[in-house]
Amino acid sequence: MVKSITANPQGQFSVEDYAVFTIMLGISTAIGVYFGFFQKKKNQTTEEYLLGGRKMKTFPIAISLIASQLSGVSIMSVPAEMYSYGAQYWIIAPTMILITMIINYIFVPVFYNNHITNCYQYLEDRFSPAVKKFVTFTYVLNIYLILPIFIFIPALAFSQVSGINIHLINGIVCGVCIFYTMLGGIKAVVWTDVVQGLIMFVSCFLVVVIGVAKIGGLSEVLERAAAGNRLEIFDMTLDATTRQTFWTASVGNLFLWTGYLGLSQSCVQRIVSVPSMSHARAALWIFCAGFIVIMTLNCFTGIVIFAKYFDCDPIKVGLVQKADKLLPFFVQDVVGNLKGMPGVFISCVFSAGLSTMSANLNSLAGLIYEDYIRPFKLFKHTDASANTTMKVLILVSGVYCIAMGLIVEQFGHILQMVVTIASVTQGAVMGIFCLGMLWPWANKHGALWGSASSVIVMSWIIAGAQIAISNKEISYPPKPTSVDGCYEYGYNVTANDFPTLEAPQDEAEFSIYNISFVWYSTVGTFIVFLVGIPVSYFTGSQDLRNFRPKLISPLVHWLLPEEVLQNDFSLKAENEKLNPEPIKEWTFTAHEEEKYKERLGVIEQTL
Hints:
Layout: H1 2-6, H2 15-38, H3 46-51, H4 58-69, H5 72-85, H6 92-113, H7 121-126, H8 129-162, H9 166-215, H10 218-227, H11 246-262, H12 265-271, H13 277-308, H14 326-335, H15 341-373, H16 383-408, H17 414-438, H18 444-470, H19 520-538, H20 562-567, H21 590-600
Subcellular location: Cell membrane
Main location: membrane
GO molecular function: symporter activity
């Protein structure tokens, strides 16, 4: 075990490994060049640049969703979570089935019935411009806080196996991502995601198969994992302060991932870029299946790592500084002698990071342009000027991510940090969309006060929890690991050399700061309802007589008065036989037609 590691020390990244990694970056760059310069139908309009003309194919969009949502954080930190805390986190995989159902039957119909391209435009239509501006601001702030982490993690893996300066590689790879995202728009992002998604699957599969084979087979892996208490997935403890239980992994992640997947602009932008709602739903179900497969592989990788080092923890003996670096260490140990395999693994981690970064850069540029630049009319707004402006925004945002790597390097447990940062606003976003789509009587006052209260309260809870963690008042000690077998590999250590870590036992009353970070999004969502519904009631509930039913999810149309449903204008599909394109054209009133064109950025007056 350790002998094989010392025989293949850090920094021995072979020529073949560099070649594999370079080919992956070269393919991504080539796709950007193709869609930026050589495709017959160039990105002449804003809709083409951001939505691919709403003609994207179902399968590529599904693969793009998989690749962009399973970031480098997932590839690196989920195995670390399994190694340190056991298999409880895997429950998120089957939970994705329920998450997909919620998105498909609550959110997607509303987005398509209202022709939403910017998901936050729904909040203006449903409530008011003030509500939209507030939630958009929280989204932009959240993305700028979390995006540097997504791309820094792959650089961390590369540095672990090659010895190259982490900030140098971070800058180079970020530069490639900025390049192809700027040039090719959504089409380049989606098709690079397809390539990178396939690399992710192949890499995860090969690492698991080779690892299991070298340990001695699947039965040996499971036997060692069971002996180390790493296979428990049905911990039904109702204690909200426990880091991971069945309830946190299912219910907690249900709220977190529903908001992250179904209500973030980077995902909605892909969902609405296919021709119809049925295509969108099919793409989401394909995503669901792919997510379950890759997440299961990813989780099992952590179990395999534990089985490999079950009697000599590389963290305790100083071979690895922290759990988030275990996976590249494991790869270098197990497959480092196979030329090119470490390169395949690094390509996998970078593929995940690049997919997430490019997806967010593309959607972030469109959102900032539409909401913060275009309204000020600083210059003549044409499709050409809009595309140029968004490319500049992508460049600036990418440079910011490179610079922020200096700060991200100081973070502790990456998965916990990502969830914590996202949860400051994720609950508010989830809550306000659900309030708007599921509670017809909610008004703009309830929405604004509910979302603002959620952000304020969650910021207070999370800040208090972080202070408590820094003061050692809150900790999540990992499950025990062994060093009993280390003497066989030249390490003269015993279990007595490492004090047993235990969570602080506080005999005082329950503190809100002690709840598991996985519950943050759930708490934030319920705060929106607890504040939003009473405020709406006391400030005059939404007048349903002047209400557009299509702004409410079809699942709750039964709550609306019959006369409101009957008065709702109908969207009529043109005869498809007369329309050679696979996109439905819709019939609007004059006012609706004008609003629709303005929303899509089709500025006919300037053409």
